Amino acid sequence: MKNKLPSKKDLERILKDLEDKPGTEMLGPEATDLERLKFDICQVIVKYMVKKDLTQRALAKELGINESLVSNLVHHKIHLFTVDRLMGYLGLIGGTLKATIKLVKAA
Fold it and tell me: Where are the domains of the chain?
């Protein structure tokens, strides 16, 4: 049976290639509601892009923005965007926001 795992040399090459690539930023457990909202909007935009099989260039054209901004959206760099701006992008792709507001009593 042939080994289907990559060789150590291949893994080192892959890791080297990935070192220079921007990664998707994730939310920590301490993320605020605002950060979670912005992250969720980015995820909806990325899902739209994948579903429509769009390149970053094509999505940039559809949103009327440059590719570097789309890259920031795709990598969830939420600190670079306001909710208003993300909502504008969401509206351009036909998305809407439904919010749930809960009152949490202080302990």
Answer: 31-92
> CA-to-CA distance for 29 and 64, rounded, in angstroms?
33
Q: What is the DSSP string of the chain?
A: ----SPPHHHHHHHHHHHHTSPPPP---TT--HHHHHHHHHHHHHHHHHHHTT--HHHHHHHHTS-HHHHHHHHTT-GGG--HHHHHHHHHHTT-------------
Q: What is the pTM of this model?
A: 0.74
Alpha-carbon radius of gyration of the chain: 18
Q: What is the per-residue pLDDT across 44-93, written as a single tens digit (0 to 9) for each?
A: 999 999 999 999 999 999 999 999 999 999 999 999 999 999 999 999 99
- Look up the CATH number of domain 31-92: 1.10.260.40
Q: Check if the beta carbon of residue 80 is closer than 8 Å to that of residue 22.
A: no
Report which of 90, 35, 45, 102 is spatially closest to residue 72, judged by C-alpha positions: 45
How far, in Å, CA of 94 to CA of 90, rounded?
6
